Amino acid sequence: MSAAQSTAVRLPRSAAARATSPAVGRPDVGRPAPAARPRLQVVRAPAHARTRVPFVLLCMSVLAASLLGALLLNTSMAQGEYERFALQTRLAQSAQSQQRISAQLDLAGSPAQLAAAARALGMEPSAGAGYLRLSDGAVLGNPVPAGAAG
Question: In this structure, are residues 12 and 27 in contact, taking their beta carbons and an 8 Å threshold?
Fold first, then answer.
């Protein structure tokens, strides 16, 4: 139906005959009859219901992306934890090595070890000690050569 046909309203025959016949003894003789309200009205077609498929797909993709992000975050954190453990183990090994070397250095710096190392190099202990005063160059004490004491 076109828009022009759908707006046209037909009046019943008796109402159409009264509107066109001359009115006798009526006060509204020269006036046209008021238009009667039509019983039928034009209505719009029902609105199409929106489909929910795009919304559901969007929700599913957001859920999948968040799960994938959580998986990647968990994996990278686990990898970082393995690296931290390896570095912590290496640090502990380095600390042990440092303690071992420090203990060896303390042992080598002890007076008994220094005397043994000096004897191994051919040095002899001195019997008399002498000191040199640097301000005036004076020799204090009774210095004697190491080999001459015996």
Answer: no
